[in-house]
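Late entry, evening session. Most of the bench is empty. Finally got around to the prediction I had been postponing all week. Sequence below, unchanged from the version circulated by S.P.
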Amino acid sequence: MKHRPATDAIHRGEGDDRSASPLTLPIYETTTYVFENAAEVEAYQAGQSDKYLYSRYSNPTVVGVEQKLAALEGAESALLLASGMAAVTTAVLSTTKVGDEVVCSSALYGGTLHLLADLLSRFGITTRFVDPVALADPTTYSDRTALAWFESPSNPTLRCVDIAAVAEACRARGVVSVIDSTFATPINQRPLALGVDIVMHSATKYLNGHSDVTAGMLAGSVERMKACAYARKMLGTVLDPAAAYAVGRGVKSLSARMAVHNANALRLAEWLEESGRVSRVYYPGLPSHPDHAVATRQMPGGFGGMICIDLDGDYGRVTRFFDRLQLFKRAASLGGIESLISLPVLTSQYGHTDAQLAAAGVTRGMARLSVGIEDVDDLKADLEQALA
């Protein structure tokens, strides 16, 4: 029985309308794709076709945004994943095997720490945590080291490492280098140009920028991303096309947003340091920051929108400050257009032992500020009244 014209239209591929020329990337909300015959399927499986088979493998919306992100990062290829932690897991499992060692900076996001130390250790992948400075020393890595993982700037103290030196040390020992560059964004920092093998972002943060999508990103060479893509397919960590569309939309305003994030954070950091109302301000743009010279050299676009302050290591004092804020919203995460505040010991470093907190340079009196794009004088007034 032949299809009627209306039925034919229903079954025709969405991309078959050659008269459509959309300004924005369409959302391909489909799980599977149609082939004309067995020869087309065979060609796909042999890697001789650019068609799509199944959206867990790849999706036109996702691929379109990945191409934008690769260009932004200066990478040959990029992948979108279901969350920042999905990106971490996929990158680690695509580059390690049973018996391998991961060398990791002791100053890093708590989720990454617990994944490496608590979960992957059950599967024969061991992790050794070292001072961030040691990552640039080739002797830090053993014959078992397969992967070096680090952040710059780090969460939450915004320590910066010499990315080029770490990449060179890893190359000398045949170790894959991966940086979490979420806090910097590709606007402020380009790690691949400094020699790093893989760049990871929690795209939930600045890349999307509107606190409404959970996503992750990996970028690097075609060869590296091919291995990560296989792991993503097996783990099922690919991003949904609607979420990918939102990330792509957010990326369009990334440069403009980061200009305001950078400017607002620098002004507030300078004021906080001059005010004498906090015991310490951590911001790479301040000359007092221990890594200011390194940050100035490798973050030409700006120093980011994140500030960490310490109120004498006093948990009682920092919670009073936290509770008094009005414009800064008490919430986890970061990188959106609105200003947020969190206490590391209750969020990113929750559950850390005292030894782990000390190794990360975190105290119980710290607050992490994600400075948004609101009027900077309003933000300053809110901080001032809460510290009074």
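Two things to note before I forget:
The mean pLDDT is 94.
The chain is about 40% helix and 15% strand.
Will write this up properly tomorrow.
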